[in-house]
Write a sequence for this structure.
């Protein structure tokens, strides 16, 4: 049996070990706090926002319910409960997220007061980073620090203080792991549970070596309890559990007994949470087959969630094998990055050929490999290929892979018979490993500091919290649904029911919207964001592939950005169905100048547009509005802005907004000559400086005799911390702007006196 050189050649450190531990704790904690408070830019993971909005519902006492509504879940719930009088989609139990991390977030939101949505709204002049985002990230940061503590304890048991301390430093300086620490994803909690399971398993193996059978059962029970908690933190953890069951079945004698024992423990803990959470979506069996369709079908898992009929997805075809092979190669190609871009993690696979003198270390090596192997299979079948994702499992193995890789490197150095120079060369090797592994974090640090200015810069594109928390929430109803390509942000930042945009208009018209109505949710508008028109590869081809019949609507904002001087309604070009006899099966019937949602609201210029039955200024009648738009302005004449009429109102009640500049800024007076020819009057133009402009708006109503009745007055204040684009307002009776209004930030609303008319909102 080969000796373990790390045990033979490691010598005591000159530095006092407790002092070294304290220094490491201060260093790593300082880096984590630096990322959380200095370079932090908000949440950027859909899974994190999804879990955060469920956690807020839990903290508010509304149970494990979600405002992020997936079409397949809505239709499934409607088929099971839609005919019941108490069927309410607004209180539908979420069946897609594991509960443990959600409850941890709920506790944090409750303690900090961020469960009270209306009381902790964003401020118009404040940071564009939503305060609750930082609370969510703080939870994952705490779990990340706890995982470092557990990593130190485990690796110290496996090897020594040198390997343990170096492992913690490498993890604390890994750009990928630090990104997980502030992501709000459950991976830091899952890592804690996994390390806890491996600690108990290490003790069980040691007890097996010493012949203590009762202790083996006790420690294995603790290991499988931690594994069950891992699964309750993220359902993908079931693949890790399967690998540990396989290991226990072959390692402990008699063969298979401990695997059966572990399976019983897991089923006893997991069955009831799984059954209760999936009841609204058809139960565990239905959820399992839905996942299988995402695996074996031609579509990705997200596409399955957006369909209303699994029969539209071919099952068990050759595409599955090609995709499985492709995902496997992609996963292996990005393995180094997924493991934290730590230099020594690939050495783990070389360490598999090394036989360690300690049976506990030898057993943990094979347990980690078995769990990693089954996790690779699970990720190839069901997981995402991105390095940062709620379904990413590779990060869980970073501590063990790092420790075994370091031990192997020290093993090689020990076999070189370096004598007294061993410690110096080992220290030099540690220095270069740390430098190489932290290179990505250090390289990105200046750019992250640049982006994190005084007010911070959110993760835009595609996420801009003020546009939803300050804008969309004010012009929408709390008991009506928004159809959108970014439902997780609408549910989290605007606290509104949000339905994921399907591919087929037919599915929306025939299945999804009727199910929503039976569940008590009317559809109030369509929100389009950069998620669909700017973040997909392949241009229009990519948009068409992902959004099908909704492609014209999704593309409209991008076309407006390319041609800002043209008042183009792209959906108007699709006013006929491609299928004879399909009736209103065309996108123009839903959102166009003559469609159901004929008003366009520019929440952040053409980047984030909300289509509804009337424009936002009508809904904001009788309120004080503060808007962030570009900054340079000049003196402009009085202009009338006619806003799209709500079809539910009679023609004589057409609303008109009169805009009059009350105060202007210096720096711009040369207006384009063709402005009047286009029928528009610009209200602000900006290029570089920060400034403000104030406008006095009078809401009036056209009477049958042509006279106008003044309904109320309110003020509009334009501000912007950024340089911006051209901003204009037109006299067009169906749209607010010939050039898209570029709302660079957000707006804040306060009610006016009771005599002022208010339509929409709460």
């Amino acid at each position: 049996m080969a000796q373990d050189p790390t045990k033979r050649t490691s010598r005591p450190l000159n530095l006092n070990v407790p002092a070294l531990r304290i220094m490491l704790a201060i260093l790593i904690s300082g880096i984590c706090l630096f990322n959380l408070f200095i370079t932090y830019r908000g949440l950027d993971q859909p899974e994190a926002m999804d879990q955060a909005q469920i956690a807020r519902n839990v903290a508010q006492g509304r149970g494990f319910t979600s405002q992020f509504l997936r079409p397949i879940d809505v239709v499934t719930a409607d088929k099971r409960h839609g005919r019941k009088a108490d069927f309410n989609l607004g209180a539908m139990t979420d069946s897609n997220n594991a509960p443990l991390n959600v409850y941890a977030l709920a506790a944090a939101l409750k303690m900090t007061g961020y469960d009270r949505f209306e009381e902790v709204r964003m401020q118009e002049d404040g940071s564009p980073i939503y305060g609750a985002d930082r609370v969510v990230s703080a939870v994952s940061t705490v779990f990340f620090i706890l995982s470092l503590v557990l990593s130190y304890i485990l690796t110290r048991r496996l090897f020594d203080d040198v390997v343990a301390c170096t492992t913690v430093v490498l993890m604390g300086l890994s750009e990928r792991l630090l990104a997980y620490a502030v992501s709000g994803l459950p991976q830091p909690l899952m890592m804690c549970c996994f390390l806890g399971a491996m600690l108990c398993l290490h003790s069980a193996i040691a007890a097996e070596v010493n012949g203590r059978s009762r202790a083996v059962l006790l420690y294995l029970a603790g290991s499988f309890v931690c594994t069950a908690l891992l699964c309750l933190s993220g359902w993908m953890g079931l693949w890790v559990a399967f690998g540990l069951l396989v290991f226990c079945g072959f390692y402990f004698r008699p063969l298979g007994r401990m695997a059966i024992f572990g399976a019983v423990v897991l089923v006893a803990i997991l069955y009831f949470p799984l059954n209760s959470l999936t009841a609204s979506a058809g139960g565990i069996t239905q959820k399992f087959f839905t996942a299988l369709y995402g695996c074996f079908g031609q579509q990705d898992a997200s596409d399955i969630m957006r369909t209303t009929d699994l029969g539209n997805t071919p099952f068990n075809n050759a595409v599955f094998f090609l995709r499985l092979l492709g995902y496997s190669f992609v996963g292996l190609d990005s393995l180094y990055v997924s493991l934290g871009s730590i230099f020594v993690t690939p050495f783990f696979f070389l360490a598999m050929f090394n036989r360690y003198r300690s049976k506990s270390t030898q057993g943990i090596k094979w347990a980690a490999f078995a769990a990693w192997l089954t996790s690779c299979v699970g990720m190839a079948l069901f997981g995402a290929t991105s390095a940062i994702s709620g379904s990413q499992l590779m990060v869980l193995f970073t501590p063990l892979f790092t420790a075994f890789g370091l031990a192997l490197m020290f093993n090689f150095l020990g076999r070189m018979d370096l004598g007294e120079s061993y410690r110096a060369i080992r220290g030099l090797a540690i220095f270069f490993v740390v430098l190489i592994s932290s290179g990505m974090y250090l390289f990105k640090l200046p750019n992250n500091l640049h982006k994190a200015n005084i007010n911070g810069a959110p993760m835009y594109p595609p996420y801009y919290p003020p546009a939803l928390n300050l804008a969309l929430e004010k012009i929408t109803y709390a008991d009506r649904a928004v159809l959108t390509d970014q439902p997780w942000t609408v549910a989290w930042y605007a606290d509104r029911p949000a339905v994921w945009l399907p591919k087929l208009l037919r599915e929306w018209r025939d299945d999804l919207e009727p199910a929503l109505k039976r569940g008590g949710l009317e559809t109030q508008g369509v929100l389009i964001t950069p998620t669909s028109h700017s973040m997909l590869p392949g241009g229009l081809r990519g948009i068409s592939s992902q959004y099908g019949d909704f492609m014209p609507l999704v593309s409209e904002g991008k076309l407006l950005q390319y041609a800002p001087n043209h008042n183009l309604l792209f959906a108007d070009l699709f006013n006929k169905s491609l299928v004879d006899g399909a009736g209103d099966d065309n996108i123009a019937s839903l959102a166009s100048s003559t469609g159901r949602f004929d008003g366009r609201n520019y929440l952040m210029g053409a980047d984030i547009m909300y289509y509804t039955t009337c424009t936002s200024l009508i809904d904001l009648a009788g309120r004080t509005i503060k808007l962030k738009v570009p900054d340079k302005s000049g003196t402009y004449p009085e202009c009338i802005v006619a806003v799209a009429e709500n079809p539910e109102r009679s023609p004589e009640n057409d609303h008109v907004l009169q805009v009059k500049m009350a105060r202007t800024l210096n720096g711009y007076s040369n207006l384009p000559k063709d402005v009047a020819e286009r029928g528009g009057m610009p209200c602000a133009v900006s290029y570089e400086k920060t400034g403000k402009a104030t406008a006095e708006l009078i809401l009036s109503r056209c009477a049958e005799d042509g006279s106008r009745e003044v309904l109320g007055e309110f003020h509009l204040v334009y501000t912007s911390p950024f340089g911006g684009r051209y901003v204009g307002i037109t006299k067009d009776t169906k749209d607010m702007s010939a050039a898209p209004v570029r709302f660079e930030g957000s707006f804040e609303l306060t009610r006016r006196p009771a005599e002022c008319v208010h339509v929409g909102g709460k």
User: Anything to note?
Assistant: The longest strand covers residues 708-720.
